[in-house]
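Section 5: illustrative case.
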């Protein structure tokens, strides 16, 4: 694969992790008329993604992956969906993958952002062009200033501004994409547990209990993050987690956030009484 063929002349490979967004993305691409091949990650990808032409792939089997991409004329690849970080013992190293073991070991060292950067380098070293989901299907990005009918008040705007500064500061250390702020206090920072689990422990930490919502989840890309392979994603489950934690809403980065079922997410936010707003990217 040279990666120089036009998109119309080759099949787009979609390496699919967990969550709803891979199936939604595959549907959008297929509707555009482009041929796709789903690389469904074993133990991660939802069954819904398997209605499209696909293979089941075990993490670590790079030889199998590269031969499959050559066989199906895939010079472009999109990585999308949630993948739990594996340990080396969990990887499937077959005979055809033995030559890649040193590269695999290098990939597994470092924070999540650095791991993804190394993985991209390995793939590109095989002549594969990595594309971002937003480059292929921009309709999945959240580009509005507000989504839904709820708007943050002045106090919440201050929390958003503070949370934005903190999320970007923590991102410099490759910690996580999310931070929860309530009335100027940091309640939680996303680490290896992910956004959903972070939200599940926020309810007990809020300064006041009751029916009044307060606090905000700010979820942003890390500085210099490769958005082709790790763009923040929100969906109805995110809204449910925010509501269950008693938070007032969420702020994400405009144009740099994937959203599953925009209409459904807006309706869920309206029903829960939480807001969804966006902040401008550092470089617009």
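Designed sequence:
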């Amino acid at each position: 694969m040279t990666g120089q063929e036009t998109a119309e002349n080759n099949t787009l490979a979609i390496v699919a992790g967990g969550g709803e967004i891979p199936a939604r993305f595959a549907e959008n691409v297929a509707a555009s008329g482009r041929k796709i091949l789903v690389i469904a990650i074993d133990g991660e990808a939802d069954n819904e993604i398997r209605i499209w032409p696909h293979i089941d792939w075990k993490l670590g089997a790079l030889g199998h992956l590269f031969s499959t991409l050559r066989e199906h004329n895939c010079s472009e690849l999109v990585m999308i969906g949630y993948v739990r970080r594996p340990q080396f013992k969990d990887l499937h190293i077959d005979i055809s993958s033995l030559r890649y073991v040193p590269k695999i070991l290098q990939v597994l060292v470092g924070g999540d952002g650095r791991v993804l950067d190394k993985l991209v380098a390995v793939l590109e070293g095989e002549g594969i062009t990595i594309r971002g989901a937003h480059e292929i299907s921009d309709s999945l990005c959240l580009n509005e200033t507000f989504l839904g009918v709820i708007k943050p008040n002045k106090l919440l705007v201050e929390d958003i501004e503070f949370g934005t500064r903190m999320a970007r500061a923590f991102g410099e250390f490759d910690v996580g994409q999310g931070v929860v702020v309530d009335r100027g206090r940091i309640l939680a920072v996303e680490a290896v547990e992910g956004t959903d689990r972070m939200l599940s422990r926020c309810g007990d930490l809020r300064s006041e209990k009751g029916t009044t919502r307060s606090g905000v989840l700010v979820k942003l890309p890390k500085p210099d993050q490769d958005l082709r392979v790790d763009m923040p994603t929100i969906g109805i489950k995110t809204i449910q987690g925010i509501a269950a934690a008693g938070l007032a809403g969420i702020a994400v980065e405009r144009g740099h956030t994937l959203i599953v079922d925009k209409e459904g997410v807006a309706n869920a936010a309206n029903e829960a009484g939480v807001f969804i707003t966006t902040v401008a990217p550092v470089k617009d």
